[in-house]
Write a structure and sequence with these properties.
Elements lengths: L8 H23 L6 H8 L3 H7 L3 H23 L12 H16 L2 H16 L1 H28 L9 H4 L1 H13 L6 H15 L4
Helix pairs in contact: 1-2, 1-4, 1-6, 2-3, 4-6, 4-7, 5-9, 5-10, 6-7, 9-10
InterPro entries: Homeodomain-like_sf (IPR009057), HTH-type_TetR-like_transc_reg (IPR050109), HTH_TetR (IPR001647), Tet_transcr_reg_TetR-rel_C_sf (IPR036271), TetR_C (IPR011075)
Pfam families: TetR_C_11, TetR_N
Protein name: TetR/AcrR family transcriptional regulator
Protein backbone atom coordinates (compact mmCIF):
# COMPACT_ATOMS: atom_id res chain seq x y z
CA UNK A 1 0.00 0.00 0.00
CA UNK A 2 1.20 3.47 -0.83
CA UNK A 3 1.38 5.93 2.02
CA UNK A 4 -0.91 8.92 1.58
CA UNK A 5 0.95 12.20 1.48
CA UNK A 6 -0.07 15.00 3.82
CA UNK A 7 -1.42 18.13 2.08
CA UNK A 8 1.23 20.74 1.34
CA UNK A 9 0.12 23.69 3.47
CA UNK A 10 2.59 26.06 1.82
CA UNK A 11 1.14 25.38 -1.63
CA UNK A 12 -2.38 25.74 -0.26
CA UNK A 13 -1.46 29.08 1.33
CA UNK A 14 0.09 30.32 -1.90
CA UNK A 15 -3.02 29.41 -3.87
CA UNK A 16 -5.17 31.24 -1.33
CA UNK A 17 -2.91 34.28 -1.36
CA UNK A 18 -3.01 34.51 -5.15
CA UNK A 19 -6.78 34.06 -5.16
CA UNK A 20 -7.03 36.95 -2.71
CA UNK A 21 -4.79 39.13 -4.91
CA UNK A 22 -6.94 38.39 -7.95
CA UNK A 23 -10.17 38.99 -6.05
CA UNK A 24 -9.02 42.32 -4.62
CA UNK A 25 -7.88 43.66 -7.99
CA UNK A 26 -11.02 42.45 -9.74
CA UNK A 27 -13.42 43.92 -7.18
CA UNK A 28 -11.72 47.31 -7.15
CA UNK A 29 -11.96 47.38 -10.94
CA UNK A 30 -15.62 46.38 -10.95
CA UNK A 31 -17.05 48.19 -7.92
CA UNK A 32 -14.45 50.80 -6.97
CA UNK A 33 -12.39 51.03 -3.81
CA UNK A 34 -15.18 52.35 -1.59
CA UNK A 35 -17.47 49.39 -2.28
CA UNK A 36 -14.75 46.78 -2.00
CA UNK A 37 -14.75 45.03 1.38
CA UNK A 38 -12.75 42.34 3.13
CA UNK A 39 -15.90 40.22 3.15
CA UNK A 40 -16.29 40.67 -0.60
CA UNK A 41 -12.67 39.80 -1.26
CA UNK A 42 -12.92 36.70 0.90
CA UNK A 43 -16.10 35.55 -0.82
CA UNK A 44 -14.64 36.15 -4.28
CA UNK A 45 -11.41 34.35 -3.38
CA UNK A 46 -13.20 31.42 -1.75
CA UNK A 47 -11.46 31.85 1.61
CA UNK A 48 -12.57 32.75 5.09
CA UNK A 49 -12.45 36.36 6.24
CA UNK A 50 -10.15 35.33 9.08
CA UNK A 51 -7.60 34.13 6.52
CA UNK A 52 -7.30 37.64 5.12
CA UNK A 53 -7.05 39.25 8.54
CA UNK A 54 -4.34 36.77 9.48
CA UNK A 55 -2.15 38.13 6.67
CA UNK A 56 -3.25 41.76 6.28
CA UNK A 57 -4.63 44.43 8.67
CA UNK A 58 -6.92 46.12 6.13
CA UNK A 59 -8.25 46.05 2.60
CA UNK A 60 -5.78 48.83 1.71
CA UNK A 61 -2.92 46.54 2.72
CA UNK A 62 -4.39 43.70 0.64
CA UNK A 63 -4.71 45.92 -2.40
CA UNK A 64 -1.21 47.35 -1.97
CA UNK A 65 0.38 43.90 -1.91
CA UNK A 66 -1.80 42.68 -4.78
CA UNK A 67 -0.83 45.69 -6.89
CA UNK A 68 2.87 45.27 -6.14
CA UNK A 69 2.59 41.63 -7.18
CA UNK A 70 0.85 42.71 -10.39
CA UNK A 71 3.66 45.17 -11.12
CA UNK A 72 6.32 42.52 -10.49
CA UNK A 73 4.58 40.08 -12.82
CA UNK A 74 4.33 42.71 -15.55
CA UNK A 75 8.03 43.57 -15.21
CA UNK A 76 9.02 39.89 -15.30
CA UNK A 77 6.91 39.24 -18.40
CA UNK A 78 8.27 42.32 -20.14
CA UNK A 79 11.82 41.29 -19.35
CA UNK A 80 11.22 37.78 -20.65
CA UNK A 81 9.84 39.19 -23.90
CA UNK A 82 12.80 41.52 -24.32
CA UNK A 83 10.48 44.54 -24.32
CA UNK A 84 11.82 46.01 -21.12
CA UNK A 85 14.32 45.31 -18.39
CA UNK A 86 14.58 46.11 -14.73
CA UNK A 87 16.41 49.26 -15.83
CA UNK A 88 15.80 51.85 -18.51
CA UNK A 89 17.69 50.63 -21.59
CA UNK A 90 20.91 52.38 -22.51
CA UNK A 91 21.46 52.14 -26.25
CA UNK A 92 23.52 55.31 -26.30
CA UNK A 93 20.52 57.28 -27.60
CA UNK A 94 18.77 58.91 -24.64
CA UNK A 95 15.82 60.15 -26.69
CA UNK A 96 15.07 56.70 -28.11
CA UNK A 97 15.45 55.00 -24.74
CA UNK A 98 13.11 57.41 -22.99
CA UNK A 99 10.52 57.20 -25.76
CA UNK A 100 10.52 53.44 -25.36
CA UNK A 101 9.98 53.65 -21.61
CA UNK A 102 7.30 56.34 -21.75
CA UNK A 103 5.38 54.45 -24.45
CA UNK A 104 5.39 51.39 -22.18
CA UNK A 105 4.22 53.59 -19.31
CA UNK A 106 1.35 54.91 -21.45
CA UNK A 107 0.30 51.34 -22.26
CA UNK A 108 0.35 50.46 -18.57
CA UNK A 109 -1.64 53.53 -17.54
CA UNK A 110 -4.26 52.77 -20.19
CA UNK A 111 -4.63 49.18 -18.97
CA UNK A 112 -7.81 48.56 -16.91
CA UNK A 113 -5.85 46.09 -14.78
CA UNK A 114 -3.53 48.92 -13.70
CA UNK A 115 -5.84 51.91 -13.74
CA UNK A 116 -8.43 51.06 -11.07
CA UNK A 117 -6.10 49.79 -8.31
CA UNK A 118 -3.54 52.53 -8.99
CA UNK A 119 -6.17 55.25 -8.68
CA UNK A 120 -7.58 53.63 -5.54
CA UNK A 121 -4.19 53.46 -3.86
CA UNK A 122 -3.27 57.00 -4.90
CA UNK A 123 -6.55 58.39 -3.55
CA UNK A 124 -6.47 56.40 -0.33
CA UNK A 125 -2.84 57.36 0.18
CA UNK A 126 -3.89 61.00 0.45
CA UNK A 127 -6.15 60.12 3.40
CA UNK A 128 -3.95 57.44 4.94
CA UNK A 129 -0.44 58.83 5.44
CA UNK A 130 1.06 55.42 6.24
CA UNK A 131 -0.40 53.85 3.12
CA UNK A 132 0.73 56.83 1.06
CA UNK A 133 4.27 56.46 2.36
CA UNK A 134 4.26 52.75 1.48
CA UNK A 135 2.93 53.52 -1.99
CA UNK A 136 5.83 55.90 -2.60
CA UNK A 137 8.49 53.69 -1.00
CA UNK A 138 7.50 50.35 -2.50
CA UNK A 139 6.11 51.34 -5.89
CA UNK A 140 7.01 54.84 -7.03
CA UNK A 141 10.51 55.29 -5.66
CA UNK A 142 12.04 52.17 -7.30
CA UNK A 143 10.60 53.27 -10.65
CA UNK A 144 11.84 56.84 -10.29
CA UNK A 145 15.31 55.60 -9.39
CA UNK A 146 15.52 53.96 -12.83
CA UNK A 147 15.21 57.42 -14.40
CA UNK A 148 17.86 58.79 -12.06
CA UNK A 149 20.29 56.04 -13.05
CA UNK A 150 19.68 56.52 -16.79
CA UNK A 151 20.04 60.31 -16.60
CA UNK A 152 23.30 60.01 -14.65
CA UNK A 153 24.60 57.65 -17.33
CA UNK A 154 23.59 60.20 -19.96
CA UNK A 155 25.41 62.93 -18.05
CA UNK A 156 28.56 60.80 -17.89
CA UNK A 157 28.30 60.29 -21.66
CA UNK A 158 27.92 64.02 -22.30
CA UNK A 159 24.34 63.66 -23.56
CA UNK A 160 22.87 66.08 -21.02
CA UNK A 161 24.27 69.11 -19.28
CA UNK A 162 26.76 68.66 -16.47
CA UNK A 163 25.45 69.09 -12.95
CA UNK A 164 21.91 68.10 -13.90
CA UNK A 165 19.57 67.48 -10.96
CA UNK A 166 18.25 64.08 -12.02
CA UNK A 167 15.44 64.11 -9.47
CA UNK A 168 14.02 67.30 -10.98
CA UNK A 169 14.78 66.26 -14.56
CA UNK A 170 12.86 62.98 -14.29
CA UNK A 171 9.72 64.96 -13.40
CA UNK A 172 9.81 66.43 -16.92
CA UNK A 173 9.02 62.93 -18.19
CA UNK A 174 6.78 61.33 -15.57
CA UNK A 175 4.96 64.49 -14.46
CA UNK A 176 3.05 65.20 -17.70
CA UNK A 177 1.94 61.58 -18.08
CA UNK A 178 0.77 61.40 -14.48
CA UNK A 179 -1.08 64.71 -14.87
CA UNK A 180 -3.03 63.48 -17.90
CA UNK A 181 -3.70 60.13 -16.27
CA UNK A 182 -5.11 61.72 -13.12
CA UNK A 183 -7.32 64.27 -14.89
CA UNK A 184 -8.56 61.95 -17.67
CA UNK A 185 -9.39 64.98 -19.81
CA UNK A 186 -7.00 64.26 -22.69
CA UNK A 187 -5.88 60.95 -24.21
CA UNK A 188 -2.62 59.28 -23.26
CA UNK A 189 -0.99 58.15 -26.50
CA UNK A 190 2.41 57.13 -27.81
CA UNK A 191 2.52 60.33 -29.85
CA UNK A 192 2.03 62.37 -26.68
CA UNK A 193 4.78 60.40 -24.91
CA UNK A 194 7.17 61.02 -27.82
CA UNK A 195 6.45 64.76 -27.72
CA UNK A 196 7.05 64.90 -23.97
CA UNK A 197 10.43 63.24 -24.49
CA UNK A 198 11.35 65.60 -27.33
CA UNK A 199 10.50 68.71 -25.34
CA UNK A 200 12.29 67.49 -22.24
CA UNK A 201 15.42 66.15 -23.93
CA UNK A 202 15.92 69.28 -26.00
CA UNK A 203 15.73 71.31 -22.81
CA UNK A 204 18.27 69.06 -21.08
CA UNK A 205 20.81 69.18 -23.91
CA UNK A 206 24.29 70.50 -23.15
CA UNK A 207 24.55 74.27 -23.48
CA UNK A 208 27.15 75.70 -25.89
Amino acid sequence: MTEAKAPDSSRRSERSRRAIYDAALALVGEAGYGRTTIEGIASRAGVGKQTIYRWWPSKAAVLMEAFLDLAEQAAAEAGADGAAEYAIPDTGDLRTDLRRVLRATVDEMNSPAYDAPARALAAEGVLDAELGAQFVEKLLEPQLQLYVDRLRAAEAAGQVRTGLDARIALELFVGPLTHRWLLRTLPLTHAYADTVVDYAVDGLAPRP
